[in-house]
Design brief:
Blueprint: H1 3-10, E1 12-21, E2 32-33, E3 38-39, E4 47-51, E5 57-61, E6 63-69, H2 70-73, E7 87-92, E8 109-114, E9 121-122, E10 138-147, H3 151-154, H4 163-172, E11 184-185, H5 197-203, H6 217-227, E12 230-237, E13 239-240, E14 245-246, E15 253-259, H7 260-265, E16 272-276
Antiparallel strand pairs: 1-10, 1-11, 2-6, 2-10, 3-9, 4-5, 6-7, 7-8, 11-12, 12-15, 13-14, 15-16
Helix pairs in contact: 5-6
Length: 278
């Protein structure tokens, strides 16, 4: 196998998001993690109705995770995947921390794109958003990284690919991943519990993924083919600083996935979230 040709064909450019202490007030409309988002006056805060760990079903406001000013990331978007203007907002229900196994998890996370943001203001949190789910503010900066998929992801679509050879060749060509988990837009997910592409396709088609799905071989082949349309939008790992910790499961990560055709169209309404941990 010509691994150089393979790598050139499948490589993607990720936009690494670096979290920096907010030493001074972050100007309105700048990219940031946490704090209070800058939103239009008529913005409707997203809610999710789901069952928590105590089996209590309740409609709850999502936590604001991050906002990305796409003019700031345009220079890093080497593959031209994102819009180059507007604002992208990420929300997630930190109370229930759904895993994305079930179709009923839809709505536990939201990505909202505002193409022409104007008259932004600091939006107050909903009164029913508990203090524990209001995150501290960090500034964001960006850099690039060239990504290749983990073996578990590409093996589903490349029959006969040898794990040992693939990982060895990745290292020889300089595609070693850092030991620490990173936050990033685009690129490939850093897997913890295996590939998520098929899981996205199954869950969004009403197939429960918390156990081995009950599908025929033909159905699985069709789902596997359709799953190629999913791609990583945003990865956020467990975050720890001297005085703050945001942990997803047991030192895990959350992953926002989007269909390629939706990404190309700038449609972020159907993003699917999956949580993986150790």
């Amino acid at each position: 196998m010509d691994f150089q040709e393979l790598f050139n064909h499948i490589k993607k450019t990720a936009i690494i998001t670096h979290y920096l202490p907010a030493e001074k007030e972050i100007p309105d409309g700048k990219s940031k993690f946490g704090g209070q988002p800058y939103l239009p006056e008529d913005f409707a805060w997203p809610y999710y109705e789901g069952t928590d760990f105590n089996n209590v079903c309740q409609k709850r406001p999502l936590s604001f995770l991050a906002q990305i000013n796409l003019e700031e990331t345009a220079g890093y978007d080497k593959d031209h995947q994102l819009p180059h203007k507007g604002m992208l907002y990420f929300f997630y229900d930190l109370h229930t921390m759904k895993w994305g196994f079930d179709q009923n998890d839809k709505g536990c996370a939201k990505v909202i794109y505002i193409e022409n943001p104007c008259d932004l203001h600091t939006a107050g949190f909903p009164g029913d958003l508990e203090e524990d789910y209001r995150l501290p503010e960090f500034a964001l900066s960006f850099s690039n990284q060239t990504d290749l998929p983990d073996y578990e992801e590409i093996a589903e679509y490349a029959a006969g690919l040898d794990w040992n050879s693939y990982d060895k060749e990745k290292a020889l060509y300089g595609y070693d991943k850092p030991d620490e988990r990173i936050s990033k837009l685009l690129g490939y997910a850093d897997l913890i519990q295996g590939s998520m592409l098929l899981e996205c396709e199954q869950a969004t088609n009403g197939i429960y993924c918390g156990a081995i799905p009950s599908v025929t071989e033909k159905q699985r082949e069709e789902l596997l083919h359709s799953s190629k349309e999913w791609t990583l939008l945003f990865q956020m790992p467990t975050m720890e600083t001297d005085d703050f910790e945001l942990m997803f499961g047991d030192c895990g990560s959350i992953y926002f996935y989007i269909r390629k055709q939706d990404l190309q169209a700038g449609n972020f309404d159907n993003v699917w979230l999956i949580l993986q941990c150790f």
